[in-house]
Amino acid sequence: MKRNIFFLICCICSLLLAIQIQTAFSQKYEDPGITDTEIKIGVFAPLSGPVVSYGIDPMRFVEMWYEMINQSGGIQGRKVVLIKEDDKGSGTSLVGAVKKLVTVDKVFLLHGGTVSGALLAAMDYVQREKVPLVGMTASMDGLLYPPRKYIFGGLGGTLHAFGGAVVDFCVNHLKAKRLAYVMHDDEYGAWGYEPFAWQLKEVHKLTPVAVEKISRDITDVTTVLMRIKNANPDAIVLMTYDRPGALLIRQAHSLGIKVPIILGATGAVNVQATADAVGTKEALNNFYYQSALRDQQNGPDLEWARKLYFKHYPDLVGKPDLPSAIGYMGIASTKVVTLGLELAGPYPTREKFISALEGMSYLDTGVMAGILSFSSDDHAGTEHTTFFKFDGKKIEKVPGSYESRWKYGAK
What is the rounded distance in angstroms from the CA atom of residue 90 to the CA atom of residue 54? Predict the structure, then answer.
């Protein structure tokens, strides 16, 4: 009888211990995508389709960096398992990819997006499911302002950062006070103009002498430039895509406009192709372009990243335009993810990861113009850009970096 009672007590104790262990385990890993040995991260970018050039090279850098992390022991002893999806650069495909990563693959967090418009389509879903999303290279203005708890990005510079920083450059480096501004007649244009106008007025007590809106498909800019010429600016800012930008630069030269022209927000385009489209070397005598990178694509400050790139992808040695400018930005976003996971501790949760990012400051990525930082009311990573003078053949870096002072809520 005593033996049966003792056996029953042992069974009950074993059952209670099992329940405690199971409870502890469920508390230890309350979110999907994480075990003692692995952490799943969902990565996505356009790997096919019309904007594939925005996705292939950033994804190479992302995969390279996570592989290096794994080779050095992982994150808090866990190996990173990447689940990769092709979002094709379209909203519909991207939402499908994100939903698959969250519901089928059950990743711990999302790391992706190189096309802001496509990424915008997944915003509500990400917020509703409470899955952290770190943008890969997209500007993400529409997702970051106002700040949303589970979404971080702007690591390649937001349009808001570009718009404010170009004022810093024009006024403090070029010593220009009469600024003309040309922008697209869409959200892209509005995002850049808001901080431009704010910083010009609030920091320097100035207003633009001319503001022009153009369509992305414009073919004749004569009237626009004549109005700008009559305003007598001492610098012209083009917050446009490269094709209309080249058209404006070429036509400005033919109209005898010789003041500095700055092509803004060009971290992801081929500036040599822009110069070739201008077609006249003399039109580039006073031409500058803006970038979120700390050096030109093949500059010495990025040599360390190029060496790693070609070490991992030796078959790409000698390929023109590689690594791409936008590719380097993949390193920045991957460093944010990996550092955030380290700071989240040995038993991270999604909420701990969010808190870790919001406390992250002064992260030097080695590739971007300035340091990266976040806070609870600012999920855009950088406010700094660089500038380069380019005559169609020779690129000269303007020393230092330039800063946007605009913050969300600024009046």
Answer: 12
pTM: 0.90
* Arithmetic mean of pLDDT over the chain: 92
**How many beta carbons lie within 10 A of that of residue 60, not counting itself?**
19
How far is 314 from 77, CA to CA, in rounded Å?
A: 29
Among 170, 166, 120, residue whose Cα is nearest residue 141: 120
How far is it, in rounded angstroms, from Cα 324 to Cα 327? 5
CA distance linking residue 288 with residue 12, whole number of Å: 77
CB within 8 A of 142, min separation 6: which ones? 116, 120, 123, 187, 191
Tell me what the mean pLDDT of segment 83-96 comes to: 97
Return d(Cα 388, Cα 392) in angstroms, integer: 12
Q: Rounded to an integer, what distance in angstroms lies between the CA atom of residue 12 and that of residue 2? A: 15
Dihedral, 84, 62, 339, 33 alpha carbons, nearest 10:
10
Judge residue 6's burial from the number of C-beta atoms within 10 Å of its C-beta, 0-12 exposed, 13-18 middle, 19 or more buried.
exposed
Angle at the Cα of 248 (from 254 to 384), degrees rounded to 5? 130
* Dist. CA 298–CA 295, nearest whole Å: 8
- Partnered with residue 85 across adjacent β-strands are 44
Per-residue pLDDT tens over the stretch 1-22: 555 555 555 555 555 444 444 4
**340 alpha-carbon distance from chain centroid:** 16
Number of H helices, E strands in the chain: 14, 13
Q: Under 8 Å CB-to-CB from 404, ≥6 apart: which residues?
A: 160, 161, 162, 163, 164, 165, 167, 168, 195, 199, 383, 384, 385
Residue 44: how many other CB atoms lie within 10 Å: 28
Average pLDDT over residues 138-147: 95
Domain annotation for the chain: domains and CATH numbers = 38-157+299-380 (3.40.50.2300), 159-291+388-403 (3.40.50.2300)
Alpha carbons 218 and 123: distance in angstroms, whole number: 31
DSSP 3-state of 26? helix
